[in-house]
């Protein structure tokens, strides 16, 4: 996040050490990981380098943010780090075209199992699209198109799609702001106009002081500092990506 912020602020000269740090953290041969290992190509929580066979927590969300940072910092699509990341992204892809969260911490796949695999859901599918695009994949890439179809067909603005059963509806609500930001960004990048936008739902839930907050605390979206940032991404994705979010007010 610091890399992307600095690049938008035209301080690209400051990010080289950060990019090298991220490179050193990837689950690849440099840290003892081989292509057949479940976390291969991904990134984890950071901190000390996770040497094989101890990955710690590894997921699609963190991997997506690293890939976007590397792309923002000027790492070219043909770079080995980006190409190796495709291994992990492909493994998180479901047979239905969507994405699930992780091949490593299996209980963290919040939508649960479906058949012999894990159920795709909205936040992870949006992350999968954005991660693939950050590796240099084209919007016409077969895997990107499949995920785009899943997102378009399942999209909702009241809850995160993909969660089946009453026992998982807290997740469908608790990830709402993340989904608003990620799905809006994915649709924009693919040139897809969703059947429903988040603007109405967000305008209806904004607090008088201009902030947003989720009633669910599962992923800390009850913190206005987190929810408001996601809400602004969903409301002004073009301005956000141009680094000009300040042109729009956070208050009604």
Descriptive overview:
The structure is a single chain. The chain has helices spanning 2-8, 16-25, 60-72, 80-91, 122-134, 142-154, 169-174, 176-190, 199-205, 224-235, 237-241; strands at 113-114, 117-118. The model is unreliable at 239-252 (pLDDT under 50). With 252 residues, the chain is mostly helical. Helices cover 45% and strands 2% of the residues. Helix 3 (60-72) runs antiparallel to helix 4 (80-91), helix 5 (122-134) packs antiparallel against helix 6 and helix 8 (176-190) packs parallel to helix 10 (224-235). It is built from 11 helices and 2 strands, in the order ααααββααααααα. A two-stranded antiparallel ribbon has the order 1-2. The two termini are 27 Å apart.
Brief sketch in words of this structure:
45% of the residues lie in helices and 2% in strands. The chain has helices at 2-8, 16-25, 60-72, 80-91, 122-134, 142-154, 169-174, 176-190, 199-205, 224-235, 237-241; strands at 113-114, 117-118.
- Counted by DSSP, the helix tally is 11
Which radius of gyration do the C-alpha atoms yield?
Answer: 18 Å
Helical amount: 40-55%
The unreliable regions are 239-252
Coarse structural class: mainly alpha
């Amino acid at each position: 996040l610091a890399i992307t912020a600095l690049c938008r602020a035209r301080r690209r000269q400051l990010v080289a050490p950060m990019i090298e740090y991220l490179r050193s953290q990837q689950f690849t041969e440099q840290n003892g990981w081989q292509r057949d290992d479940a976390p291969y190509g991904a990134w984890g929580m950071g901190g000390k380098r996770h040497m094989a066979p101890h990955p710690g927590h590894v997921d699609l969300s963190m991997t997506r943010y690293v890939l976007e940072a590397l792309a923002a910092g000027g790492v070219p699509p043909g770079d080995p780090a980006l190409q190796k990341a495709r291994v992990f992204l492909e493994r998180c892809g479901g047979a239905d075209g969507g994405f699930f969260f992780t091949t490593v911490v299996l209980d963290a796949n919040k939508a649960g199992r479906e058949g012999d695999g894990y159920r795709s859901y909205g936040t992870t599918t949006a992350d999968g699209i954005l991660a693939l695009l950050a590796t240099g994949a084209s919007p016409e890439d077969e895997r990107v198109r499949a995920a785009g179809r899943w997102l378009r067909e399942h999209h909702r603005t009241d809850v995160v799609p993909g969660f089946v059963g009453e026992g998982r509806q807290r997740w469908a609500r608790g990830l709402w702001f993340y989904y608003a930001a990620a799905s809006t960004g994915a649709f924009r990048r693919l040139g897809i106009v969703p059947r429903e936008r988040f603007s109405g739902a967000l305008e209806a839930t904004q607090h008088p002081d201009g902030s947003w907050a989720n009633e669910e605390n599962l992923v800390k979206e009850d913190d206005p500092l987190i929810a408001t940032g996601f809400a602004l991404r969903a409301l002004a994705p073009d301005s956000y990506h141009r680094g000009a979010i300040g042109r729009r007010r956070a208050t009604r």
